[in-house]
Input
Amino acid sequence: MELISSLLILLDVHLNSKEAVIEKLADLLEENSRLNDRDRYIHDVFEREDIVSTFVGDMIVIPHAITDGVKIASLLYIRLKEPVDWNEDDQAKYILGIAVPADNVNNQHLMILSSVAKKLLDDTIKNKLFTSTSKEEILAALLE
Output
């Protein structure tokens, strides 16, 4: 199964909190049969956030977890209509979620995180994430 598909991309949705964003990530994973345990996934993402915020600048966050709650490694993208408070000083509008099974085969988590970070350094890709109305265009940018 692919790491990401158009089914794991949501554009211009209204969510009103960090909690709602993480629950929506879990919903997308669950709807696409990529979770073993929804509550475990949510818990582990929040636990990771408690260690250090996944805010990376430009209203971009990369919430992620390596957890036995995940069945299939996945990359998700959600673009919000309005930013939400992510932590005390930062707001998030562009969410790149990463979910990796606990066995983390071939250090998949780090490979996905590294790939996403490199893409965010490319202004053309970042602009597509920020403005495109096409899930397919965003999918192509994330798969480049």
